[in-house]
Design a protein that fits this description.
Length: 377
């Protein structure tokens, strides 16, 4: 039932038709959901004939909240969102690159707690938490990341602070999920996501699903030193411009946009370096589109035009797919983290609605257990 009214507000007769229930049963189910706070009535449509227009009902996405956390190399971001992924509150803090994983997680806990308090909610009110990490994650444990992170379980570190499911994944995987969910790739079933900022990373979506692989390392093509992703940023560091000034990254892109030949050459070298790995992924999985996110995408065509040219040159077996900028830009991973958390809540609701789980009151949060007992989802 929730899945039906989540798409758009519907009348009782329409709900009955879609679900196969009688009108009486549909009315009873909706009344239960309204009583529990999971549905609400909205303004009827403008009447087109005689008679009173029928009330419509929709899912209340704000009936529960989730948290998304993005632990980056320099910044930890957090946001509280509803079950549609709409952001209700967000904040970020600067972090030390060499900080211990435990210290970074402690900072994330503090930020999430502060955001929940601003919304008048307690830590127990977050029903799922998604965490994005610049690392390879397998079964919630980091297998490859910053020095000192290998073997660290972010989920285990967060569990004492939150009584809800905690889902941890690579930041590029979550950015890919976000682009397919509500970004630049919503119309595509297969895509490659490339993060281009302080570092370069990638994620894959095939047949509408994020591909993680047997050990969580799918898409980690940048780990191959032969492809040059690890050192590609060096082409944008300390670049000498035509006027003698030396600049880095964002200023290089700006100078290239203004036509500085040396800056244009630096951007071209950088684009050529990361194009090798992108072309390898394109030829391996044959996606419909390549979405580029991260800070460098702010440069627009100054960056994407040479990148597209290099990828097209390397894709000799097939035409290169379109390379498009992310509509989420640097927000891909945090959007994906919150979205993953929201989807996990909805999946549990749908699973109970289908009778696919046998649960006790200790297996789920109190609100979810209450809903499950109504047998009205």
């Amino acid at each position: 039932m929730i899945e039906v009214i989540r798409q758009e507000p519907l009348t009782i007769p329409t709900i009955a038709q879609v679900t196969g229930l009688s009108k009486t049963a549909a009315d009873s189910v909706v009344a239960n959901l309204v009583g529990l706070g999971w549905a609400e009535s909205v303004e009827p449509l403008t009447p087109t004939g005689a008679g009173r227009p029928a009330a419509r009902y929709r899912f209340r996405a704000d009936a529960a909240v989730v948290a998304g956390i993005d632990i980056g190399q320099h910044t930890t971001r957090a946001e509280i969102a509803d079950l549609n992924g709409e952001v209700l509150a967000s904040a970020s803090i600067s972090v030390a690159t060499a900080g211990s994983p435990a210290a970074l997680v402690a900072g994330a806990v503090e930020v999430v707690g502060r955001l929940l308090a601003e919304l008048g909610r307690a830590p127990a009110d977050a029903w799922a938490i998604g965490v994005a990490l610049p690392a390879v994650v397998y079964q919630d444990v980091i297998t490859r990341g910053a020095p000192g992170w290998a073997g660290f379980s972010v989920r285990a570190a967060l569990e004492p602070h939150f009584a809800c499911p905690i889902l941890v994944d690579n930041d590029s995987n979550l950015a890919a999920f976000a682009e397919a969910w509500k970004g630049s790739a919503t119309k595509y079933g297969s895509m490659i996501y490339v993060h281009s900022g302080n570092r370069t990373g990638s994620g894959l979506v095939l047949n509408g699903m994020v591909v993680r692989g047997a050990n969580g390392a799918a898409g980690e093509i940048g780990a191959l030193p032969h492809l040059g992703w690890e050192h590609a940023q060096e082409f944008l560091h300390d670049v000498a411009l035509a006027d003698g000034h030396r600049v880095s990254r964002e200023d290089v892109f700006a100078a290239a946009a203004d036509g500085d030949d040396l800056a244009v050459a630096a951007v071209d070298r950088f684009s050529g370096a990361i194009a090798i790995g992108i072309a390898a992924l394109v030829l391996a999985v044959d996606p419909e589109v390549v979405v580029v996110g991260g800070g460098n995408v702010r440069a627009g065509d100054t960056f994407l035009t040479p990148l597209t040219r290099h990828v097209q040159r390397l894709c000799t077996v097939r035409p290169a797919p379109p390379i498009v900028p992310s509509t989420l830009k640097e927000r891909g991973s945090i959007t994906g983290a919150a979205g993953l958390a929201a989807n996990s809540v909805l999946e549990r609701l749908y699973a109970m609605a289908g009778g696919g789980q046998t649960l006790s009151g200790t297996d789920v949060p109190p609100w979810l257990w209450e809903v499950a007992q109504t047998d009205s989802l």
